[in-house]
Amino acid sequence: MSAGAGSSTAASAGASTGVLAATCVSAFVVNANTSAVSILLPAISEDTGASLNTLQWAVTGYSLVGAAVIVTSGALGDIFGRRRIFIGGLLLFVASCVVIAWGDSAGTVIAGRAVQGAAGSTILACGLSLLSAGSSGDAQMRAVSLWGAASAAGAAAGPLLGGVLVDITGWQGLFWIDAGIAAACVPLTLRTVPESRDPSRPRSVDFAGTVLIATALVPFVFAVTEGADWGWLSGPTLVCFVVSAAAVVGFVLVEKRVRAPLIDLGLLRNKFLVGSSVAILVVAGCINAVMYVCSLYFQNPDGLGMTPLEAGVATLPAAVGIVVTAPLITRFVDRLGARRVIAGGFGIATVAFAVFGFTHASWGYAAFVGPLVVLAVGLGLANGPASSVATACVTDDQVGAASGISNMGRYVGAAVLTAVTAALFNSVYTRQYTSGSAVSDALAAGFSRAAIGLALFCAFGFVLVRFVGRIRPTGPPTAAHYAAAAAASSHTVPTRATTVATGPTNGTPA
To answer: What is the pLDDT of residues 358-391, one digit of tens each?
Structure first.
């Protein structure tokens, strides 16, 4: 969201209903789709004949592209019109759903999910900007609260919906339904949502920065995913790391020179923003990684042998718990401060992952429930406050940029930690199985080592706490704070009203 002249109150009031309907429905669909895919992977693997190790790119590819595109899509909306880019995101989402549903190979599914990553991040970024442009003050905060609640509900409902649909329609059903809902949002948006843009923003777009982010992330994820098989000091692994490092250097050089940089490097001197964004990265990575390995282990015949529906229900303590817990913690943050709450959250999550480190083939589902609930509480404690700090530690005109940085971190965390965890799970399983262990024992060992790896990442959160600072809310928590905390598992939502520049097409000359 960009700072600038506000739109008229009359225009804002008239646009609010249409904007809310289009943006909230699309946010629900995007987040439900994202969180459901891990449940679908075993069914997709069975249909396409692809290994689960290959299909993890359907999860990480989505996040990689989303990380590269989310800030750029917001910039395109500011320049060419937020409604126009939002509709473009919806159409791209529909197309990606159709490609995936018709796909009969892993390559098609993975490619479709990569395109969906671009579409999903565009819908979320521009949808939130449309809400901010279509209202102001308390009305804007109410609208943002509803959007946050819709995002949170989608993220929580996704695994269950995915499990239900696999049994009823096959795994393709989720994508056909999502395509239909997204398509219905297009005429609704055209009919009810006014256009807005930021005429004060430079017309240039930092496409070079976008490409360099992708160039840094993709080889890095390839290296950490395949390094165990290639050899950590092998030529392909080292080349990937060198390319990734060179892209990071190139990105910094480009951002210093372009007129409208993708990331304001000056904001990276704000230790509160950096600390909270890295905390968000760790939390998002742990959420996505644990959902991934739980889905695979629960559905494997030599694991818990669940159906997709049963696995969707079984993962609810983690999926719903994280979303429900975060806003309940808001009052603790008000009293104790973000630093203590985030530290406590990482500590609790570390303990839960450590318990999973003792996973044995004899464990039934009952042994997983307790740690999953504790994990949900811990990650919820760390997640909501970190997202609030990310936008509370900057000035009003920097909120949009800070939100972009934290959301990019969220996508990066989801991609990297899911890839690392999947690689660790598969490597340990393969080593145990080839050494003569029973399949069930090898699977349990893979789950155990993956959990220990995630425990170490959560423990790293303690190091980050000192960078978060002693930021407290300026007053008692409002509905916006609760909704922002709930939505924090998928998106950083500002908790104070902002002014967003609009063009003449929105009724008010900028």
So the answer is: 999 999 999 999 999 999 889 888 887 888 777 7
Cβ(359)–Cβ(444) below 8 Å: yes
Secondary structure E strands in 48-191: none
- Strands (E) across 325-395 are located at none
CA end-to-end span of the chain: 15
Instruction: Say how far apart CA 314 and CA 365 lie, in whole Å.
Output: 8
Q: Is the dihedral of CA 277, 141, 496, 5 positive or negative?
A: positive
DSSP code for 50: -
**Tokens 């395509």 found at:** 179
* pLDDT tens string 281-292: 998 999 999 999
What residues contact residue 56 under an 8 Å CB cut-off, 6+ apart?
41, 225, 292, 418, 419, 422
For 384-421, the DSSP string reads HHHHHHHHHSS-GGGHHHHHHHHHHHHHHHHHHHHHHH
State both tokens at 20: 């809310």
Length, in residues, of the chain: 510
The pTM assigned to this predicted structure is 0.88
